[in-house]
């Protein structure tokens, strides 16, 4: 298990299928967690090192407010873990409407862009930081009938590599995690990856032991090779 004692960690999408496992993993590793989602409450994780911060990341101003509140309360952000995202599929590119494409980029790319842009200056001022974003296997291996989703996750993977390149001089690492199909409450079936295993990879990337890992898109496919 990663040792994150004393680390201040901001987790977006901190509850839900994967988010709950990620938040739990970071609390078990000793981190102080600020959990962000629209409906999150302190009672969602009854732990002395958990702080709920209900918010949306639909604009740059909203993201800056989230980061400002976290820094005002804890003084720094050692790791940003961006779990928030959404899924839509089942249509060919020819049949995908503007609303679906816009929704996928809003949930899977723009929200990440907003919170990254708000957090990076704080981490650069600190001289250190870990940034991990949950993308998807489809971000590097597009699938038919998933055009909007695959494109939005590919954009996120590209954004994370750019952030790694731009901030390697400031002690900041940035990596994308690419889960395959995961065993969430809404996704059942043989061969799916337990969310706890994906969370363990994310927690490792936030620790000191992963200081040399940056600019990576890390597959977590299990047996789905």
Short description:
With about 220 residues, the chain is α/β, with parallel strands linked by helices.
Describe what this molecule looks like in 3D:
By secondary structure, the chain is α/β, with parallel strands linked by helices. It has one domain: NAD(P)-binding Rossmann-like Domain (Rossmann fold, 3-Layer(aba) Sandwich). The protein is built from five helices and nine strands. Strands 3-2-1-4-5-6-9 form a seven-stranded parallel β-sheet, sandwiched between helices. The protein has a two-stranded parallel sheet with strand order 7-8. Strand 5, helix 4 and strand 6 form a beta-alpha-beta unit. Helix 1 crosses helix 5. The longest helix is centred in the middle third of the chain and has 29 residues. The protein is globular and about 50 Å long. The chain starts with 7 loop residues before the first strand and ends in a 5-residue tail after the last strand. The mean pLDDT is 96.
By CATH's scheme, which homologous superfamily applies?
NAD(P)-binding Rossmann-like Domain
The second-level CATH architecture is 3-Layer(aba) Sandwich
Tally of distinct domains:
1
Q: What gap, in angstroms, lies between the N and C termini?
A: 25 Å
Give the oligomer, counting copies of the same chain as homo and different chains as hetero. single chain
Please compute the radius of gyration using only Cα atoms.
16 Å
Determine the structural class based on helices, strands and strand pairing: alpha/beta
Which segments are poorly predicted (pLDDT under 50) over 5 or more consecutive residues?
Answer: none
Query: Reading side by side through the largest sheet, how are the strands ordered?
Result: 3-2-1-4-5-6-9
Number of helices: 5
CATH topology: Rossmann fold
